[in-house]
Design a protein that fits this description.
This protein is an alpha+beta fold. 36% of the residues lie in helices and 23% in strands. One of its GO terms (molecular function) is DNA binding.
């Protein structure tokens, strides 16, 4: 873990933004102080002793601390938590539940750092914890904070911005969604390179009273990057350029097509990652869970206490096994992808482009109006069941992480939005018809191909179209929001025959 300190452009901040930042940091410090006081009072209930390497250390139980401080509207352990001895939500109404938990984590960290000392230093009875500074920590989540890098000429104030959650007026407005406070950063090329090296885990906002300026501390987990081409002692510029377009599907987990300078697709350039063995195992567990659920639903006089009922216990065990198997299935799929990518890097100057199917689950639930003006589902129950267990965001992030750890540059792994890639013909670019679910037929050029392969080809072509855009200087990754300069992809302009 490494901290990266970046200065906020305080001279370009408005009075409203300065007041907001002061109020947010002040509120958070008061909440942290309250948490520390509660931990001191309720030491017997909250603290547990853990022995590590012969040393006894004090650890705060966060779940028990929540039971003392935070109320809940939803059921937790079969009961709603409406009454709490130390109700912080009443004391600080202009704060969200997630932000309370963030402040709790900081307070726990301060408490443990103060009391878990070395063997030689003995803690006295009247030991006081160090004073809490004006800090604000947030975990990496799009709902809590966003880092955005804008291209040149789009904004005169700053190119880099951080959007922090502003939950001070949510109760007054009587809305669930929180606003964002956008802060301009004075970020150099050095800072941008350091952020690209790893993954931003948390953010800390600090005020320096002596200099009268605000600072942002990014906590980054650095991923060790070693160039794959340097390991093999090969210059990638001497190798022929190629683009691997990957489509993530329902029935077939992944399909890929390699676009080379020949302008033709050979059978060696087509990849299907079907995972048949893993699918059989998953199907067996799915059938077992379905049968048991039906049996329990048919029984009228089922036991109210689910812990004592044997049927519910076995169902719980089966679900856990299914969950572990699905995790293993996901990692096995990513390993297979990575093996093929490594083989292709030996012969080609490769760029991997993955199509990210954003909003697939929500689109399947929507209703489409028919020609007779009757509401008709855009998908069947069968397809919804298939799409539901797939977490596409997790697949793409894991694949990206795997590639970076094993030595591929971040410019070589891109995610693009696969908009209209499955409905357009890969040869002429016009709209197609689907006579069968797995096939695509073009009525204009009479070209038929597998639906997943057409999607993979169109994803690769979409990347090539970005290179020939006029006035474009950067290429944006759809998932991470990083800007990559087009000078890195100059050798890939030789694949323009795919766009003809």
């Amino acid at each position: 873990m490494r901290t990266l300190r970046v200065r906020v452009k305080t001279e370009k901040l408005t009075k409203f933004k300065k007041d907001r930042m002061r109020k947010i940091t002040g509120r958070d410090t008061r909440i942290i102080e309250e948490y520390v006081k509660i931990i001191r009072k309720e030491e017997e209930k909250v603290i547990r002793k853990i022995s590590k390497q012969g040393e006894i250390r004090l650890k705060v139980h966060k779940g028990k601390l929540d039971e003392l401080t935070l109320t809940t509207t939803k059921k937790t352990n079969k009961k709603k938590r409406t009454v709490v001895p130390y109700d912080l939500k009443k004391k600080f109404p202009n704060c969200s539940h997630d932000e309370f938990q963030e402040c709790r984590d900081v307070a726990v960290q301060l408490y443990e750092q103060g009391y878990n000392k070395k063997k030689n230093r003995k803690r006295k009875k009247g030991y006081i914890l160090p004073p809490v500074k004006r800090t604000r920590k947030q975990l990496i989540n799009k709902n809590r904070f966003i880092i955005e890098h804008l291209p040149k000429g789009k904004n005169t104030l700053s190119r880099c911005w951080v959007g922090i959650r502003d939950s001070l007026d949510t109760q007054k407005r009587k809305k669930r969604t929180h606003r964002r406070l956008w802060i301009p950063l004075e970020m150099s090329e050095y800072h941008q390179k350091e952020i690209r090296k790893g993954q931003v885990k948390s953010l800390e906002l600090k005020y320096n009273s002596q200099k009268n300026s605000w600072w942002v501390n990014f906590q980054i987990t650095i991923i060790p990057q070693a160039d794959l081409y340097k390991k093999k002692k090969v210059d990638p510029s001497l190798l022929p350029p190629a683009v691997l377009g990957i489509d993530l599907g329902e029935k077939i987990p992944g399909a890929g097509v390699l676009l080379t300078s020949t302008g033709k697709i050979s059978p060696n350039h087509i990849f299907f990652w079907k995972m048949k063995e893993w699918k059989k195992r998953k199907y067996i567990y799915q059938q077992k869970i379905r049968r048991l659920q039906r049996k329990l639903a048919k029984k009228k006089n089922t036991c109210k206490d689910k812990r004592s009922n044997k049927g519910y216990q076995t169902l719980k065990k089966l679900r856990k096994r299914y969950q572990t198997l699905s995790h293993a299935y996901l990692y096995a799929f990513i390993n297979e992808l990575w093996k093929d990518i490594v083989e292709l890097t030996q012969d080609y100057n490769l760029v991997v482009v993955v199509g990210y199917p954003k909003g697939v689950h929500s689109k399947l639930r929507k209703k489409v109006m028919n020609q007779d003006y009757r509401p008709q589902n855009s998908s069947t129950r069968f397809t919804r069941k298939k799409v539901h267990p797939w977490n596409y965001y997790q697949i793409v992030t894991l694949l990206r992480r795997m590639c970076l750890l094993n030595g591929l540059e971040p410019e070589r792994i891109l995610t693009l939005q696969e908009y209209l890639t499955s409905s357009l013909c890969s040869k002429c670019g016009r709209k197609t018809i689907r006579p069968v679910r797995g096939l695509v037929y073009c009525s204009h050029c009479h070209y038929t191909l597998h639906s997943d392969l057409t999607c993979a080809i169109n994803i690769g072509k979409l990347f090539l179209r970005f290179l020939f855009r006029p006035r474009a200087s950067t290429l944006v990754d759809y998932l991470t929001g990083q800007h990559f300069s087009l000078t890195f992809y100059t050798s890939f302009r030789g694949l323009n025959q795919w766009l003809k």
